Amino acid sequence: MPRLSGIDIPNEKRIDISLTYIYGIGEKIAHDILKIAQVDPTIRTKNLTGEELKNIQTAIETMPTEGELRKIIRNNIETLKRIQAYRGVRHSMGLPVRGQRTRTNARTRKGKRKTIGAISKEAATSAPAKTAQAKTTTAKK
Fold first, then answer.
1. How far is it, in rounded angstroms, from Cα 130 to Cα 64?
2. Is residue 8 within a helix (H) or strand (E), and if so which, with residue range?
3. Which of 58, 69, 55 is nearest to 26 (CA)?
4. What count of other Cβ atoms lies within 10 Å of the Cβ of residue 34?
5. 75 and 50 in one domain?
6. By C-alpha distance, which of 34, 81, 82 is closest to 57?
7. Can you give the pTM of this predicted structure?
């Protein structure tokens, strides 16, 4: 398995698809990288020569990928939070940032449902006993 930008890319796939395993590289950027490196996109990764791999690596190093890109994105989000922009507030509250509705969907961002207002049978039967107990302790004082 060749290793580019600290990521092992698959041997059996075409090189244009293999490059998309690197964070920050999609199909279009992969084709641009291969054009810069002058490598045929239909070649399987296992059939690449050392020189072609070196050319691809130098082309990848010109753009932010993996840890560097994650750091840039994290800093951008922190800036939005610090200046109290709407998007930053939504990030800090854990709600959808790009205008999606939250009344029914947004479970990925909001997390598991928290039921409000409905009481289980156990809580309903123990609640009157607790309130009665609390009243008697306050009456004794």
1. 60
2. strand 7-8
3. 69
4. 21
5. no
6. 34
7. 0.70
Degrees (nearest 5) of the Cα angle 23, 102, 108? 35
Please count the structural domains in the chain.
Answer: 2
Question: Has residue 81 been placed in a domain?
Answer: yes
Pair (20, 35) in one structural domain? yes
CB atoms within 10 A of CB 79: 11
28: Cα separation from own chain's centroid? 21
Mean pLDDT per segment of 10 residues, for the chain of length 141 residues? 87 93 95 94 92 93 92 97 96 93 89 81 68 62 58
What would the pLDDT profile of 36-62 be if each residue is shown by its tens digit? 999 999 999 999 999 999 999 999 999
Q: Which two tokens stand for residue 22?
A: 């690197």
Q: Which two tokens stand for residue 48?
A: 């690449």
